[in-house]
Write a structure and sequence with these properties.
By secondary structure, the protein is mostly helical.
Length: 413
C-alpha cells in the first residue's frame, strides 16, 4: 500500500513537472498570437503603438528583444535597443507592466530559473513528506497496539481538554519522531521533565511529545483559523494567522502551568485526611507501606493518592523509603510535601517512631490550611472592591438618582 501511494505521488509530481514546462513554453509566446509570423505580429503591434496604445508598445518592445534569428540581422536594425526604447516609452505613458518589467518584475515571461527551482523544491517536498508519513508505518502501528491500557489512556487524554485530544494523534505520529532525533533533545528533556511530573502528565505525554505539541500548534492554530474563516465566510484579517502561530507555541506552557496549579491545590486539600489516616494506620500496627496502601484505599481518589501509589510501587521494586519520598517531593514540588517527606526521611534515618511525628504533622497541616483559608477570606473583600465600584455602585446611583433627576426636570417644566 505504501509503495502504491509513493508511486501515485511521483506520478503527480511528473504531471506537475510536465505541466509547468508546458506552461512556461506557453508563456514564452508573446501576446498569444500563435498563428502569426513575427514580422506580421510586429507590424500589427507597431500600427497599434502609433495610435497611442502603450500596452501594444510594450508588447512590441518584448517582441523586438526576441528577434534573435539570423534573418533579422540583415535588416540593419538593433532590435534589442529598439525594444528597450519602446518599453521605456510605454512606462512613461503610464503602462504599469512596462514599469514593472524595467524594475525586473517581468509578469509576462516566466523566469526559467524560478520555474525549475519551484519544480525541484516541489519534488523534494513531496518525497520528504511521503517518507515522513509512510516510513516505518507498520512498526508504529504494532507499537501502538502493544501499549498497555490504551483505552484507559485515551480516556485520560480526553479529560485534559479538546485541544490535546484532537492534536495528540497527529503530533505523536508525525512530529514526535522528528523531535526525538533532534540534537537538542537533551535540553528539551531537562526543561520539560519536571513540569510534566508536577502536572501529573507523565503517563500521557513524554518530553518529546510535549515539545512536538508546541510545534504542531504553530501550524494547527492558523489552519483552524483559516478553516473557520472559510467555513463561516467572514472577513477576519489573515494577519492574525502568524499571531495565532505564536499563540499556539506558547499555549502548551500556559496550559501545563494551569494543570500544575490545579493539581497542587488538590494535593493541599487532600493532605490533612491522608496524613491523619496514615498516622492512625501506623499507630494501629501497620508498617509504612501497608499504611500507605490503606490510605490509598480509604482516601478520595485524587492527585495525592496517585503519588502515594507511585511511591508504593517504587518501594516494592527495590527503592528505599527515603529515595521514594525524595522522588515524590521532586514530582510534586511543594513546600508542604517537601517538609512532610523530609520529616519522614529524618525519622527513618534515626529509627524514631513515625506515629507521633505524623500526628504533629497533621495538626500543623490543618493549622496552615486554616490560616490559608482565613487569608483568602480576608483578601476577598479587597478583590471584590474594584468590580463593585465599576459595576454595582453606578447601578445603585442610577436607581437612587434617576427619580430625583426626573422629578427635578418635570418641576422646572
Amino acid at each position: 500500500m505504501t509503495r502504491s501511494i509513493i508511486n501515485s505521488l511521483l506520478v503527480i509530481f511528473l504531471t506537475l513537472f510536465i505541466g509547468g514546462q508546458t506552461l512556461a513554453q506557453d508563456k514564452s509566446k508573446v501576446g498569444g498570437y500563435d498563428d502569426l509570423d513575427k514580422r506580421e505580429l510586429a507590424k500589427l503591434l507597431d500600427e497599434s503603438c502609433k495610435k497611442g496604445m502603450s500596452a501594444s508598445c510594450f508588447e512590441l518592445g518584448l517582441l523586438y528583444q526576441n528577434f534573435k534569428e539570423a534573418k533579422f540581422k540583415f535588416d540593419g536594425i538593433n532590435y534589442s535597443a529598439q525594444g528597450k526604447k519602446l518599453i521605456a516609452e510605454a512606462c512613461t505613458n503610464g503602462d504599469q507592466n512596462a514599469c514593472d518589467y524595467l524594475k525586473g518584475e517581468d509578469r509576462f515571461k516566466g523566469s526559467q530559473l524560478l520555474l525549475w527551482s519551484a519544480i525541484i523544491l516541489m519534488g523534494i517536498a513531496v518525497l520528504i513528506v511521503t517518507k515522513m508519513m509512510f516510513q516505518d508505518n507498520e512498526q508504529f502501528q504494532v507499537s501502538q497496539k502493544l501499549e498497555d491500557g490504551e483505552d484507559q489512556k485515551t480516556a485520560e487524554v480526553k479529560s485534559h481538554g479538546i485541544i490535546l485530544q484532537y492534536s495528540r494523534p497527529f503530533f505523536k505520529r508525525y512530529v514526535s519522531p522528528i523531535v526525538s532525533q533532534m540534537k537538542g533533545k537533551k535540553k528539551i528533556k531537562e526543561k520539560y521533565r519536571r513540569k510534566l511530573a508536577n502536572s501529573g502528565l507523565t503517563e500521557v505525554l513524554t518530553t518529546e511529545d510535549f515539545y512536538a505539541f508546541k510545534l504542531f500548534l504553530i501550524i494547527g492554530f492558523p489552519v483552524v483559523f483559516i478553516a473557520l474563516r472559510s467555513f463561516l465566510e467572514t472577513d477576519w484579517p489573515l494577519k492574525l494567522a502568524p499571531v495565532l502561530g505564536i499563540v499556539g507555541f506558547v499555549y502548551p506552557d500556559i496550559w501545563i502551568k494551569g494543570k500544575i496549579d490545579q493539581r497542587q491545590k488538590e494535593i493541599v486539600s487532600g493532605m490533612p485526611f491522608s496524613v491523619d489516616m496514615l498516622a492512625l494506620s501506623v499507630e494501629a500496627g501497620l508498617d509504612f507501606v501497608a499504611a500507605m496502601t490503606k490510605v490509598v484505599e480509604k482516601a478520595k481518589p485524587g492527585a495525592l493518592t496517585e503519588e502515594f501509589e507511585i511511591m508504593i510501587k517504587e518501594i516494592k521494586v527495590g527503592a528505599s523509603r527515603a529515595e521514594a519520598l525524595r522522588n515524590m517531593a521532586w514530582r510534586i514540588d511543594m513546600v508542604q510535601i517537601s517538609s512532610f517527606c523530609a520529616t519522614l526521611i529524618a525519622a527513618d534515618s534515626v529509627g524514631a517512631s513515625i506515629g507521633p511525628i505524623l500526628k504533629a504533622l497533621s495538626a500543623e497541616i490543618r493549622q496552615k490550611r486554616s490560616a490559608q483559608v482565613e487569608k483568602e477570606g480576608a483578601t476577598a473583600a479587597t478583590k471584590i472592591l474594584f468590580p463593585m465600584m465599576i459595576f454595582i455602585v453606578p447601578a445603585v446611583f442610577l436607581m437612587v438618582g434617576a427619580p430625583i433627576i426626573v422629578e427635578f426636570v418635570a418641576g422646572r417644566n
